[in-house]
Amino acid sequence: MCSGSFAKCLGISLMPLAIVCVLCNILLFFPGGKPVEKDHITEQVWYFGGILGSGVLMIFPALVFLGLKNNDCCGCCGNESCGRRFAMLSSILFAAVGVAGAGYSVIVSAVAINEGPQCVVNTTEAVKFWDTPFSNGDYLSDKAIWSKCLEPPGVVSWHLSLFSVLLVMGLIQMALCAVQVVNGLLACLCGDCCGGSDAV
């Protein structure tokens, strides 16, 4: 398979992953599926790991990878393959951006999973007290303490599930972008196709 075609496959794979990450981050603004005041939303949600890191910053590499298959650069210095090789080289820079964005999302998600959600831990007739009742990921191995979160209903599983998806999606995105770095380097050094031809 030519490197341009392979990069297009990577781009096609990255697009749905980016969309899933954006949707997960948006859903995290509604703990337990319920609208709450912005002060009661878990802090890490506001870091926009899924929207910016694995979303917006991943769209650019994905679009670049998709365009490499039909890159008909005119070449340079009389060498028709030069333009394509330069395009593959530039794709490495965009892949690096993708790795950085996905890495940011992974870090934010890991911290959020470790700290747990913000939720109602005590109530009176007039006031609901919000806090982050877990520490150092203790709730991950002890489901019994999930009951510390009184409201919103199901907020712990909501928080854990969505941030886990963001974590896994981010790791997959990092791997795909890293593969494109290798693919781009091989294309620059050996030409666009493994068989020695630069035709796409």
TrEMBL record:
Membrane topology qualifier: Multi-pass membrane protein
Transmembrane helix keyword on record: yes
Keyword Transferase among record annotations: no
Cellular component GO terms, alphabetical: membrane
Stretches that traverse the bilayer: 12-33, 45-66, 86-107, 156-179
Subcellular location: Membrane
Pfam families xref list: L6_membrane
Keywords, comma-separated and alphabetical: Membrane, Transmembrane, Transmembrane helix
InterPro entries: L6_membrane
Tree of life domain: Eukaryota
Record-stated family: Belongs to the L6 tetraspanin family.
UniProt protein name: Transmembrane 4 L6 family member 4
